[in-house]
Amino acid sequence: MEAVWVLKPKIEALLIAAGCAVTLEALAKCLEVTVDEADEAVRELEADLLGADRGIQLHRRPHGMRIETKPQYADLLGRLLPGRKAKPMTSQALEVLAIVALKQPVAIGDINAIRGIESASTVETLAERRMIARSARLGPRKARLWRTTQVFLESFGLASIDELYKEGRMEEVFTSVYSGESGTSTE
């Protein structure tokens, strides 16, 4: 059994380097410790990072945990990295994203047919934001198909796409599509 004080910096390094959500089980396996030992070290690390003198925090999500900057530093980060600032997602983008999430894998032609308007540029914008990605090609004309990504799941706090089908979850995730509002953030 490795001491908690030895595990904490290792976990911190792993979470920072991963750049995405990591499960407790994956940490335990990597560190060659039990899940309970990893959980104890994670809880202590989380408490340490909550201190006022820290700019980062441990954020738990349904599909894992990650180290993120504290929200009060968002403006500061925006000044240093203006390209990384969260841009609001339009209602059109949310509409296309909802179609992809529900019908995936889906071709642009099918998205256009459902929406009644051309959606290629919106699909490309969502792909640039890594919310959707190309899937396999299908059919006699080899149409390019689109699917949601891990970035989509993380942005909306979903562990898996199946969570969209739980009662009320679809409306919660795509609130602005249903209410006609725009300006939902993707981060």
CATH class of the largest domain: Mainly Alpha
Class by helix and strand content? alpha+beta
Main sheet specs: 3 strands, antiparallel
Measured by DSSP, the beta-strand proportion falls in: 15-25%
In terms of per-residue confidence, which ranges show pLDDT below 50 for 5 or more consecutive residues?
176-187
Q: What's the total helix number?
A: 10
Question: How widely separated are the two ends?
Answer: 38 Å
Report the strand count: 7
What overall form do the CA principal axes indicate?
A: elongated
Q: Percent of residues in helical segments?
A: 40-55%
Number of domains: 2
Explain how this protein is built.
With 187 residues, the protein is an alpha+beta fold. It has 2 domains: 4-79, Arc Repressor Mutant, subunit A (Orthogonal Bundle); 88-185, Winged helix-like DNA-binding domain superfamily/Winged helix DNA-binding domain (Arc Repressor Mutant, subunit A, Orthogonal Bundle), CATH 1.10.10.10. Helices cover 49% and strands 17% of the residues. A 3-stranded antiparallel β-sheet has the order 4-6-5. The chain has a two-stranded antiparallel ribbon with strand order 1-2. A hairpin with a 2-residue loop joins strand 1 (56-61) and strand 2 (64-69). The model is unreliable at 176-187 (pLDDT under 50).
